[in-house]
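Hey all, sorry for the wall of text incoming. These are the two entities for the joint prediction.
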Amino acid sequence: GAGVSQSPSNKVTEKGKDVELRCDPISGHTALYWYRQSLGQGLEFLIYFQGNSAPDKSGLPSDRFSAERTGGSVSTLTIQRTQQEDSAVYLCASSMRQGARTEAFFGQGTRLTVV
Amino acid sequence: SQQGEEDPQALSIQEGENATMNCSYKTSINNLQWYRQNSGRGLVHLILIRSNEREKHSGRLRVTLDTSKKSSSLLITASRAADTASYFCATDAYSDMRFGAGTRLTVKP
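and here's what came out:
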């Protein structure tokens, strides 16, 4: 595709339910990042995938959060037993090379609301 | 850990004025990037400056890098209301890419 695609754009879920957020990176990009952004705040790093290397999960806030990247392409961020504090915009980005060595492209995010 | 921290946290100016925001970092880098975010959605890449460059221009944007002070500045000249956004920096100090809290710029018409 032309850019990074995230789905759904918006998600409203009940507290305690599980949710899956999807990210389709730009084809050929080896690096993929997930961030969380609460209203008016900065970007909180969640997880980073680079090629076939083990992902950097150091930013995941709890064991309710997990992510995978299948075939080095599409990534899914799963939040189990959602809590109200999980409400935020979840952003995905991809780049051709690791870290900030090249430009990163962001999706438009998924706005998650836990009620 | 954060790779870059922006200041000020918020900046409010009149249209036509220049806006300057700063980024400080802690470790040696090869390059530094600036991004803009409108309305809390995806970030858009503005400019990348390498460690062997001191200044770079792109349209109304001017970025400087001082590796001895571990700092960078982003100058937006002749600001417009459409420049209202949050601005973030990121460096390649680590294998991943992390951002500071950003500078929230408001340009009043």
